[in-house]
Write a structure and sequence with these properties.
The structure is a single chain. The chain is of the alpha/beta class. The chain has one domain: Alpha-Beta Barrel (TIM Barrel), CATH 3.20.20. The chain has nine helices and eight strands. The protein has helices at about 5-20, 40-50, 60-70, 90-95, 105-115, 145-150, 170-190, 205-210, 220-225, and strands at about 30-35, 55, 75-80, 100, 120-125, 155-165, 200, 215-220. An eight-stranded parallel sheet has the order 7-6-5-4-3-2-1-8. The two termini are about 20 Å apart. Bound molecules: pyridoxal-5'-phosphate. Pyridoxal-5'-phosphate (PLP) binds near residues 34, 165, 205 and 219.
Length: about 230
């Protein structure tokens, strides 16, 4: 039986291989382990295998896991990567280190107001609906520059970059298209004077394509934790 530790090693090897193939340094891409619908114990095992950054999709599940792993709070980084409703912003501002799924100024303003002074500014990425799907959350690419400028001006947030969940595609070439579009968008924002360093893109199925297109953080669930429970 493969263990979480085996999977962490295999995923890190895959990431190193992809970075090499892209001509990028081995440590250019951060590995974010996505523990949604996995028990806190699984996250503890992934940490024991060497990982420190964890992504959660659901606010309450993330808060429960943070509490269960409170003994590791100083060494773990917690990232919210799922939808954020405005009635949950206070708990998120008080507990998480990053939010990848920001797509409304109102939510950003609340997070900034509610981020405790005792903590460093909350790291945020704008989620971009890069494939233009009707049902997906995320801001339309055309609206990204204005939202980015407004979010970058908020005192208790630190705008780090962009995140996307593209439509699944079967081939490497097809997978690269939306990742490239997100990178071009980030380059444009930086050319316009922002200083953004994060492209959160790539999951278990398209990690290689994302790394080829410049991902700085990949979000990996299944390849580390196995299939998710119900
Ligand atoms: C579930 C999830 C992931 C990880 O997906 P896998 O295919 O299991 O690697 C990454 N990002 C987001 C936003 C997710 O919801």
């Amino acid at each position: 039986m493969t263990t979480i530790s085996d999977n962490v090693q295999a995923t890190q090897a895959r990431l190193n291989q992809a970075s090499l193939a892209a001509g990028r340094p081995a440590n250019a891409v951060a590995l974010l382990a996505v523990g949604k619908r996995q028990p806190a114990e699984a996250v503890r095992q992934a940490h024991a295998a060497g990982l420190c950054a964890f992504g959660e999709n659901y606010v309450q599940e993330g808060l429960d896991k943070l509490a269960a792993l409170a003994d590791l709070r100083q060494v773990l980084q917690w990232h919210l990567i799922g939808p954020l409703q405005s009635n949950k912003t206070r708990a998120v501002a008080e507990a998480f280190d990053w939010v990848h799924s920001l797509d409304r100024l109102k939510t950003a303003q609340r997070l900034s107001e509610q981020r405790p002074d005792s903590l460093p500014p909350l790291n945020v990425c704008l989620q971009v609906n890069i494939s233009g799907e009707d049902s997906k959350s995320g801001v339309a690419p055309v609206d990204v520059p204005a939202l980015a400028r407004a979010v970058a001006a908020l005192p208790r947030l630190r705008l780090r970059g962009l995140m996307s969940i593209p439509e699944p595609a079967d081939t490497l070439d097809a997978q690269r298209v939306p990742h490239r579009a997100l990178r071009v968008l980030l380059d444009q924002l930086n050319a316009d004077g922002l200083a953004l360093d994060t492209l959160s893109m790539g999951m278990s199925a398209d990690l290689e394509a994302a790394v080829l297109e410049g991902a700085t953080m990949v979000r990996i669930g299944t390849a580390i934790f196995g299939a998710r429970g119900g």
